[in-house]
Specification:
Keywords: ANK repeat, Repeat. This protein is mainly alpha-helical. It has a single domain, classed as Ankyrin repeat-containing domain (Serine Threonine Protein Phosphatase 5, Tetratricopeptide repeat, Alpha Horseshoe). The chain has ten helices and no strands. Helix 1 runs parallel beside helix 3, helix 2 runs parallel beside helix 4 and helix 3 runs parallel beside helix 5. The protein is elongated. The chain starts with a helix and ends with a helix.
Length: 179
């Protein structure tokens, strides 16, 4: 009888913990910075991941929630953690073209050329999707256009492969040397 009681108490605690985690991911997706801060202050691990490997920071930044992202960064969320697809929060911003979010992440120590195991940088994602303004921001922050990923491709290679003409033109021009 005592074992059953202990097991049911454990199951109830597990259910409560799972509910708190579920709420935290909802707060990150919806941008509820105050609720997210409170749940982190109560002890929820800031680098918690969901079933796809997305951290709270990945979700808040991807969905463009500046205040929630700031709260996570102030709680020491790791901006270099990749999800199960090897993407960083900065790569997600580059894909979406969210320069405000990229600046926030970079201002809080995100590596401009950080990458997952495949070596794809935020600049490569920006180039793929013809996000020239994002490319300019990343390059101004030190991104290296000539950097190669695990398959030896550069941002220019990605821009050309995806038909991102403005990005390809900008990157090609930066590689030309004066005569």
């Amino acid at each position: 009888m005592k074992t059953g009681t202990r097991e049911s108490q454990s199951a109830a605690i597990d259910a409560e913990v799972l509910e708190v985690a579920r709420m935290a991911f909802q707060y990150a997706r919806s941008g509820d910075a105050a609720a997210l801060g409170a749940i982190l202050d109560a002890g929820l691990p800031v680098n918690l991941r969901n079933e796809r490997g997305d951290t709270l920071l990945m979700l808040a930044s991807y969905h463009g929630h500046v205040d929630a992202t700031r709260v996570l960064l102030e709680h020491k969320a790791d901006p270099e953690r990749t999800n199960d697809r090897g993407q960083t929060p900065l790569a997600g911003c580059a894909f979406k073209g969210d320069i405000t979010m990229a600046r926030l992440l970079l201002d809080h120590g995100t590596q401009v050329d950080g990458a997952g195991p495949d070596g794809k940088t935020a600049l490569m994602f920006a180039a793929m999707f013809d996000r020239v303004e994002m490319m300019e921001e990343l390059i101004s922050r030190g991104a290296v256009p000539e950097r190669r990923d695990a398959e030896k491709r550069t941002a220019l290679d990605y821009a050309r492969a995806m038909g991102a003409q403005r990005a390809a033109e900008r990157l090609a021009a930066s590689q030309q040397t004066p005569a």
